[in-house]
Write a sequence for this structure.
């Protein structure tokens, strides 16, 4: 007996992984660039090579798991969750390309100052200890990472497979145990991400903030406000939302394997919403950077007559 909802769920999960894997490459190709020289365009083309290779490798991994799932049930879960490869593809390969295509997003370009002859200054304040992330927030992030890990670990003290009143199929015990082990390791990786996150936030705090020649207080306030939003947004996304969602999903799958179709839909929709939230956050921060660059250019124009 075929359940239509199960069929729809399987089709969604099969389509989700390659779409999410291809998304970073598509975004990197579609976002317009503002490169002025041939050297910059050559450098941009060179940056696309590792992104294409990494994307093809991720697709090959997904296809390998999908083909293996025809014989081994555990490979289906691995294939379904290959959409998670979207995050390293975007952060490690696509985002550097986007920054290269739009140097103004980093606020580190001094082309306008060179063109107009204006004097450019930079904020040299040590902002390393001016983080808006409090100790209480870090404790919440640690709890978010540990919650799913503890829930999945507790499953190891129960029977394999989970008693459901149905006849136990061959290899069900080994399959459930393998899925439990896999998700336990994946949940533990959230702790590794939590160890890396402080360094990421520190680098964001220390990003250059070019000032106008007069060192305008208005520009300093805009930088401080945007810096706070950027750091807090990255913290809540990477430190709390992503590990909490993923570890909770892993725990539910581990404890309720019979509801795989429903949990697959929940994972696909939740992961898509999380990805959309990250994209909206990135675009919002980029728009604020562009506004700050416009304010800086206006202040430079206002101050240029007095310096000529």
């Amino acid at each position: 007996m075929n359940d239509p909802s199960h069929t729809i769920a399987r089709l969604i999960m099969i389509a989700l992984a390659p779409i999410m894997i291809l998304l970073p490459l598509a975004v990197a190709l579609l976002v317009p660039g503002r490169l002025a020289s041939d050297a910059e365009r050559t450098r941009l083309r060179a940056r696309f090579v590792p992104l294409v290779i990494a994307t093809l490798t991720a697709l090959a991994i997904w296809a390998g798991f999908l083909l293996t799932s025809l014989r081994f049930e555990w490979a289906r879960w691995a294939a379904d969750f290959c959409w998670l490869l979207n995050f390293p593809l975007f952060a490690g390969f696509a985002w550097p390309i986007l920054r290269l295509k739009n140097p103004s997003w980093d606020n580190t370009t001094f082309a306008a100052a060179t063109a107009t002859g204006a004097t450019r200054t930079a904020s040299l304040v040590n902002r390393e200890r001016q983080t808006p992330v409090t100790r209480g927030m870090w404790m919440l992030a640690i709890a978010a990472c540990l919650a799913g890990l503890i829930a999945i670990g507790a499953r190891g003290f129960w029977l394999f497979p989970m008693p459901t009143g149905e006849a136990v199929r061959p290899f069900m015990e080994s399959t459930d145990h393998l899925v439990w082990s896999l998700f336990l390791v994946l949940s533990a990786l959230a702790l590794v991400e939590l160890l890396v996150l402080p360094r990421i936030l520190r680098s964001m705090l220390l990003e250059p903030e070019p000032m106008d020649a007069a060192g305008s207080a208005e520009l300093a306030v805009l930088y401080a406000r945007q810096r706070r939003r950027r750091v807090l947004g990255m913290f809540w996304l990477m430190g709390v939302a992503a590990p909490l969602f993923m570890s909770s999903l892993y725990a539910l799958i581990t404890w309720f394997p019979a509801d795989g179709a429903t949990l697959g839909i929940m994972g696909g929709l939740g992961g898509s919403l999380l990805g959309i939230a990250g994209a909206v956050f990135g675009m919002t921060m980029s728009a604020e950077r562009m506004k700050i660059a416009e304010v800086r250019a206006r202040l430079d124009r206002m101050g240029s007559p007095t310096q000529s």
